[in-house]
Amino acid sequence: MEIAxxxxxxxxxxxxxxxxxxxxxxxxxxxLTTQLKNQDPLKPIDSADYAVQLATFSGVEQQVKTNQxxxxxxxxxxxxxxxxxxxxxxxxxxxxxxxxxDGDAVTLAPEPKAGADRAVxxxxxxxxxxxxREDMAGNTNAYEWRGxxxxxxxxxxxxxxxSLESYSGDRLLGVSDVQAYSRIMEAKNGPLGTTLILEGGxxxxxxxxxxxxxx
Length: 215
Fold this sequence. Notes:
Elements: H1 2-11, H2 20-37, H3 47-85, E1 92-96, E2 99-101, E3 106-109, E4 118-124, E5 130-137, E6 143-145, E7 158-168, E8 171-177, E9 179-190, E10 193-198, E11 203-205, E12 211-213
Antiparallel strand pairs: 1-9, 1-12, 2-7, 3-6, 3-9, 4-5, 4-7, 7-8, 9-10, 10-11
Helix pairs in contact: 2-3
């Protein structure tokens, strides 16, 4: 009997709790009724004041419901975006940021400054220490970085940051970031929007991706 009773109680649906705005509205009506009952009969409250109070509360109620609706729509758009981004997983994304080196060549898309006749790729490890400098032509728009140190030995597996120094003769024109292609391993939603997880666990915002390609 006790088991059957427990099961029956568990199966009984819990009554839905009234929404906060509904509860507040009922409280407001009770206060308004009390105000009407206890007003001074010789100095009754102007009916226009009641109308203003009702209109004000009604406006707040509608605004709260509108905000709830917008939040629901935002969640739906997030799910739609995720379904579209699912096709990105496994492709290579081009973006500015750290790159993962594990022995395989990484395709870079350097953009030397206008007027540069040569450029130097500067490689730094996760601590910021410079590991290598590689010369390249100033008009290079694609470059295969093979992860070598200053002595031509393979760099350890890990995350590296890349920058590009542009020169005209011996004059430095400027230093810029370098875009690189990395494989997309995962896409996820968060408080700041959709984030892509690249090789090596590198995270980047989806909005920062400038190109996609099939590896």
